[in-house]
Amino acid sequence: MYSTGAAENRLFVYEVVGLSQNGENDSTSPIRRSGSVFFTVPYRRMNQEMRRIIRMGGQIVSIKPLNGDAPSQETATSSPAKPLSTSAQPQSTEKTNGKVMTQAKAKNTDIPVNIYRPNKPFIGKCIENYSLVAEGGLGIVQHLTFDLSGGDLHYIEGQSIGIVPPGTDANGKPQKLRLYSIASTRHGDKLDDQTVSLCVRQLEYKHPESGETVYGVCSTFLCNLEVGGDVAITGPVGKEMLLPPDEDATIIMLATGTGIAPFRAYLWRMFKEQHEDYKFKGLAWLIFGIPYTANILYKEDLEQIEAEYPDNFRLTYAISREQQNAEGGRMYIQHRVAEHAQELWDMMQSPKTHTYMCGLKGMEDGIEEALGEIAKSNGIEWSDFVKQMKKEHRWHVETY
Questions:
Q1: What would the 3-class secondary structure string for 213-276 be?
Q2: Active site (catalytic) residues
């Protein structure tokens, strides 16, 4: 989706204090016990160099593009400077209106869109439909897989497809399509490029006037769809939630309920496929809000990934009806974000960090409040920071 372009050839200067001699040092990095040390680092090695500095006990004072005023090789000054707050990822910065902002990246326009439209949908067949909610869980959530063979429907992670349920609406007109986030990678759950999968919760609510229970038309159709049944599919659509191609990226994922769908696609691509055209080497962090442990969708797979890739995947649950927040109330996703606000904020300073939010729209205000406090403590308005991240295509939200 994004291209670093000429940035790969740029050099940056790290000013570091607090280094001491240890086994990490090598002949290319002269170390001083006090004062500042300057490291000239190519863009492609920024992550690696930061980790090395942190392992040596150093603290980064500044990161600047190499220019005529900056040292061109590793040298030391006589007086130390105040260290920056460092994170697991380095940051590349520019000045914009007097504020330090991370660099923007270009969009990739090679994205499949609207291959099939409502007036001529693709008719796929259901080949899989199973429950994702364990005993004692709340509601009905199903994982469905559809056969796409015989058509040309293809997609990439982060996109959605439309489902047109059969029948007519209250006015006697054909049902309109409903959009669902795709829960599989571009290669599909069968890894044959011939399927697409969804994670669907049956919509259920009380009618505000009659008090009767109302069930969603399309979600009920899908949750009850038998294997072998036909389904009308449109799309794909969506460019907001796409993954960057950078294999060293940091991916922060904030999900509630079936908002896990696009993140399942990301994680399966990162860790289960290890496809020849994409081998993830960065950090993925999923903060997942659910009501009960029994409602942790794809729980076994998520925890297996966490066990097998502890250096590349972090998994944090917010289980509202089983866990308590610091004030003794229910533990929602915004409380987990608040607990890790400083770390998340530090990560977001890196141009390689992308933040994704998917799920119930109500989660947005709480997360904004949690991260707004840490932004304010750093002298930045959260709304301004989000605007800048959007310009850089690093802030991705899909709520409903």
A1: EEECHHHHHHHCCCCCCEEEEEEEECCCCCCCCCCCCEEEEEEEHHHHHHHHHHHHHHHHHCCC
A2: 180-181, 358, 398, 400
